[in-house]
Amino acid sequence: MANDPAIGELQQLRDIVRRFVDERDWDQFHSPKNLASALSVEAAELLEHFQWLQHGRIEELGPDKLAEVKHEMADVLVYLVRLADKLDVDLLAAVEEKMVLNRAKYPADQVRGDARKYHEYKR
Questions:
Q1: CATH no., domain 5-107
Q2: What is the DSSP code (8-state) at residue 3?
Q3: Are 25 and 76 in contact (CB under 8 A)?
Q4: Does 123 score more than 70 pLDDT?
Q5: Which of 14, 3, 63, 71 has the alpha carbon at shortest distance from 42?
Q6: Residue of 74, 64, 66, 85 lying closest to 15 (CA atoms)
Q7: What is the CA radius of gyration of the chain?
Q8: CA-to-CA distance for 56 and 116, rounded, in angstroms?
Q9: Is 36 exposed, middle or buried (0-12, 13-18, 19+ CB in 10 A)?
Q10: Tens digits of per-residue pLDDT, 5-64?
Q11: d(CA 21, CA 111)
């Protein structure tokens, strides 16, 4: 994994966000609690764009709304990357670990095409 481009991209994102925060002296406000709260607010703002759409497909959004959605997605990612930075969490490793847990919880041969929660289907 040492040469994984995703690692470099995540580090680059972290550095971009760190620089932005440092230039504004905002680290003092970035407690994990505040960042988690901000992440939740931004996720809600993202969801708001889809609230009354039938399916939320790209053609329902149109170019202007899609641009707004893109910016809300960026806000969510920025706060997530910042929270991971503050808690010293390797996001790529966390995703890999979670996928191992999800594979055990949702075996593909048992849940393929089934959207129910893991406790709702028979093993």
A1: 1.10.287.1080
A2: T
A3: no
A4: no
A5: 71
A6: 85
A7: 18
A8: 21
A9: middle
A10: 877 899 999 999 999 999 999 999 999 999 999 999 999 999 999 999 999 999 999 999
A11: 43
